[in-house]
Amino acid sequence: RHQKPSIYAHFKGKDELFLQTLKGALDEEGTRIIRRYISLKDQPLEQRLKGLLEYLQEEYTRSSKTKFVLRMAYFPPSSLHDQVMELVFPFLDSMEKRMIRVMRHHASAGHLPVKDPDGAAVAYMTLIDGVLIEMVCGGLEGSQRRLAASWPVYWAGIHHI
User: Fold this and answer.
1) Which of 3, 8, 22, 104 is 20 to 30 Å from 48 by CA-CA measure?
2) What global pTM score does this model have?
């Protein structure tokens, strides 16, 4: 009788398979987020930024990959915590660097009257973090409530920093 080779034949074990799956999912999520932001290019900056947050909420409810990435970013398996964070932190850092470039571009073009575009970008990433952790822990309704309450404060606030 001929047995099919195990999926583990290609990996050193379950942990390596898990980490490779997470890395692939992070890469795909990053590409999808960038594509979505680019697709909103004809909208004013405020609508693009808020629209990206709303997109992330939608993706969490309909994409198992997005759900997997977010759950692992906030609640990695304890046995793989350090290895997972070695994948997640560079992903988050690259997203923050992209957002800093976006804010600097809009500030220098006169579309965003802020003195500190870097601070506006970091604050935006913090807002994303709060909205998404609520999504993971409390669900869509709570996440939407947080976004609705915090967005006007964020948008008004970045014009004064």
Assistant:
1) 22
2) 0.88
Q: pLDDT, tens digit, for every residue of 91-129?
A: 999 999 999 999 999 999 998 989 999 999 999 999 999
CB 98 within 8 A of CB 34: yes
Q: Which domain holds residue 143?
A: 9-158
Q: Phi then psi for 132, rounded to 5 degrees?
A: -75, -35
Assigned domain for 56 exists: yes
pLDDT (tens digit per residue) in 51-82? 999 999 999 999 999 999 999 999 999 999 99
Task: Tally the domains of the chain.
Answer: 1
- Angle at CA of residue 104, ends 129 and 132, nearest 5°: 10
52: burial class by Cβ within 10 Å (0-12, 13-18, 19+)?
A: middle
Residue 72 · residue 22 · CB < 8 Å: yes
Chain centre to alpha carbon of residue 14 = 26
Report if residue 146 sits inside a domain.
Answer: yes
d(CA 64, CA 18): 15
Residue 25 burial (10 A CB sphere; 0-12, 13-18, 19+): buried
